[in-house]
Design a protein that fits this description.
Number of helices: 10
Structural class: alpha/beta
Strand content: 5-15%
Distance between the termini: 35 Å
Oligomer: single chain
Number of strands: 6
Helix content: 40-55%
Order of helices and strands: EHEHEHEHHHHEHEHH
């Protein structure tokens, strides 16, 4: 067995490794790190299999947004392989009926007008309200969206619409679990994460201050510090629930 932790970062909808750049830099001296690529996947189960294939043996999962749902599916598939679990700005319930029209509207927008139009409409509500016009934040996020395609977006939206209900998985989790959420996350709220942490035995909840849904990018130092503590590196604690 390797003496270093093996950490798989699982990205969210339309996200790639760039969303974890700061965390990868912070954790790489302490662990072997890989980022899953979900661009070709159209189901949460397929994404979970791709995540589990990143390493042999035990691994730790950092699931962000859609990736958090993937992480929970990976726990369901291979509970004995998951050494640690971090669920960040995510959820666990199945799709709500009220959610579907909005998601389908964005699929139609991307197909009709392209990824720039999608980025312009989708991204602003995903960040802290005060940063919707912050070019230093929004520019790289828009560039990331533009690296994807309408077909990729449609596949991932289909995966999210058909996502499994992970509620039964939560009380079965036995590995050390960190739940992270941006306090101003308008898509996956603090209350949602309080319920998530409460349902997982021994889970720890940390709140990332002054952050919306894109906490790894909006507050990279705070998220990196929380992840370092999660893997056992001595880092002063500044932000917690």
């Amino acid at each position: 067995m390797t003496s270093r932790a093996q950490i798989a970062f699982l990205p969210g909808l339309l996200c790639d490794a760039s969303v974890f750049a700061s965390q990868i830099a912070a954790l790489s001296p302490h662990a072997d790190v890989a980022v899953a690529d979900f661009a070709a996947e159209d189901s949460i189960a397929g994404m979970a299999r791709a995540a589990l294939a990143l390493f042999e043996g035990k691994l730790s999962l950092v699931g962000y947004s859609m990736g958090g749902r993937v992480a929970l599916e990976a726990v369901r598939m291979a509970p004995d392989r998951i050494e640690r679990l971090c669920l960040m700005d995510t959820g666990f319930a199945p799709a709500r009926e009220a959610e579907l029209p909005g998601r389908r509207k964005l699929v139609d927008l991307a197909n009709r007008e392209g990824m720039q139009a999608l980025a312009s409409q989708w991204l602003p509500p995903m960040v802290h309200p005060a940063r919707e016009n912050d070019a230093g934040l929004m520019g790289p996020l828009a560039d990331m969206v533009l690296r994807a395609t309408p077909a990729q977006h449609a596949r991932q939206i289909q995966a999210l619409i058909e996502r499994p209900d992970a509620t039964p998985v939560l009380p079965t989790i036995r590995c050390p679990t960190l739940v992270l959420v941006g306090r101003q996350d308008r898509w996956a709220t603090l209350a949602q994460h309080e319920a998530l942490a409460a349902a997982i035995p021994g889970a720890r909840l940390e709140v990332i201050e002054e952050s919306g849904h894109f906490s790894p990018v909006e507050q990279p130092a705070a998220v990196s510090a929380a992840l370092l503590r999660w893997i056992g590196v001595d880092v002063p604690e500044r932000q917690s629930a």
